[in-house]
Amino acid sequence: MFSSLLILSFSLYSSHVYVDAAVPAGGTGAKDRPFRSPVEAVQSLRGKAHAKSTILIADGTYELPGGLVLTGEDRDIVLAKADPTGRVRFTRSIAATPGGKVVCSAPPAPDSEFFYGIRPHAPLFFYDHAWAVPARWPNEGWAYFTTAVDNGLRSRIRGGIAPDSPAVPGSFVFDSDRPSKWNFDEGVWLAGYFAHDWAFERIRADRFVTTPSNRVMKLAGAAQYGLASGTWSSEKGRRFYAYNVRAELDAPGEVYWDRKTGVVDFIPPKDGVTEFRAAVTEGPIVSATGASNIEFDGITFEYAAGDGLLLVNCTNCSVRCCRVRNVGGNGVTIRGGRSCLVQVAFIEGCGLGGVDVSGGDRWSLTPCNHAVEGCVISRFGMLQRTYAPGARVGGVGVRLADNVFHDAPHSAVLYTGNDHLFERNEVYGIMQETGDAGAFYSGRDPTSRGNVLRFNYVHDLGRPGDTAANTMAFYLDDCDAGDTLVSNRVKNVARGLMLGGGHDNRILGNTFENCAIGMSVDARGVVWDDRWDSKIDRSWQMTRKVKEMQVDREPWRTRYPLLLTYLEDGPREPRHIDVVGNTFTNCKEPIVWSMRADEFKHLIHWADNTADGKSF
How many CB atoms lie within 10 A of CB 247? Predict the structure, then answer.
């Protein structure tokens, strides 16, 4: 018996495996004969019985053409820097030379991509920790149009939600000769806000037609909501810029890749560049499926067409003290699994979102216990400029705590699901391009409940010169229900909080400073009668969502008892709302009642709120 235990303990020893990019291939992982790649190091441990093993990685850049792939056979591994003060970088890119050739077989972007479906398309180019910009016009800011020749819709938009027949390519008047010098056969794309300020799209331009009386831009792809409509904006017209235009390669940091010849032209900044790289294969730098007890410590993940790290159905995996930057997808994606952690990380320059975290089981309300803690997440939404937030949260039981979100075009946190906790986060400098958006945003699902937002500090949002109060710190949109906001601080925001007609929300002890509108309440479920159970738009259909979740069973009936009578208890009206102990200071309008909400004031528990020191 003693000898068996001795053999077992010997086989489960804690080991070290070494990696160094500067050595020849053919190492064993020993300190004097390290592997050349972390891929080899992981494979050397796969399927073997061991206690926690540490892969110690020497300083350098590690090119991973196929990414680092982990499976369910990979467990109990730490990947860390050999020198705690050194620099280790994983990349899914190749070194490139301006004026040289870059081989990439990925297809071009489709003719149109809508706001929730924009994706990175290889190749992507980077230099000196920055994105190279596909040659564009104007170099900064926007071009504008106001008149559609053909809005692309063949019938009316129902309730402003979605067309009741498919959109088709449209065209618009563009009073400029600039496009006359563009070669549309090479592929010219327009990117911008063609209808709504919350819907960024990319559409290929077909051609530019000039006549004695008009100049018209004809599109090859459709705009989802048509052209030249608009909602709730102070802009002078609909906004766009053109990119992938060889004739507009004229500014430092711009790049043009010729798909036929493979030649890449780049205009360097005046001080030159030390690094120029191309991401030519799609996919994440690290992909883990079913792995457990994997830790990444102190590593930089940079330059890829996909995510920095993708963790699917993983358990007890962590990304600690790492930097994820300049990737085409999300910085970190966690889907399924349990107890995964992103902690004290810097995530910046992401084409899509910063972190995308979901897990748990809504049917049984089983939490995933994933967490994002102490991170700085910035410059997200580089490609998909709406609905690619700093953090997207779904499922059950995710915690966001002590993070900082800043400098991005749209929302910081988008969430759905149940029993999430968002606490002590700071948000500023976001929604720099968009409207009808919130720093923290949720909506359109009365079964998404139990979410707590507390002790967050949201300040200085929106774009300069926007006179419409259409950027919100907290946006409980379209009859959102069951949220609790406690002791949050909001400052220098157009609208501190919008309660969009929902049930069972608690607004307790928050402060609102220097807001055009401190808080607004509406009864949109009553006013927008045709949307509630829309036959067109499944994102509404409130009755269906409640019935499908079967809220009369356990654990739902105990956890959320108000849902038992939701469909019978005036679901379209703002009910069971507590607004207690909130402070409004220097707000032009502390509270606004809109869309018939004043008819339902008696349904809202309002107590101990003050505006500039006076109760109201």
Answer: 17
